[in-house]
Amino acid sequence: MRIEGQPGRYSASMRTTINPSMEPSSPYFVDMECVAVLTVDDTLTPEDAVRGATITAHSVLYGAIREAVAWLTSRQPYGTLVLGLSVLKSAKDEGVESAAGNPGSPAPL
Fold it and tell me: Which of 34, 37, 60, 98 has a C-alpha 20 to 30 A away from that of 10?
C-alpha cells in the first residue's frame, strides 16, 4: 500500500498462522506478523513500483517469518519447525479473498 504524503514509500504486512486451534497433536502454535516499509525508485511507473514493492515485500517478509519461526523452535524438544515454500499469486489469478486466506500471502498493496 502506498504511504500517503511519502512519494515512493510503500508498506506491506504478512501474517502466518500455524495451528490456530491449538490442536494438541501439533507441537507448535504460531501467529506471527511482519511489517515492511519499502522505498521504490521514483523513475518507475506507478504500476511497476507497486509490482516491485509487492514482489520484494513477499520475499523479504516471508523470509523473515520463516527464519524467525525456525530460530524460535530450533531449541525446543520437538525440533525445528521449517516453513515450506510460499508462492505469490496475483489477485486476478485466484481472487482477492484467496490471498487473504493464504497464510503465506502478503496483504494486498
Answer: 98
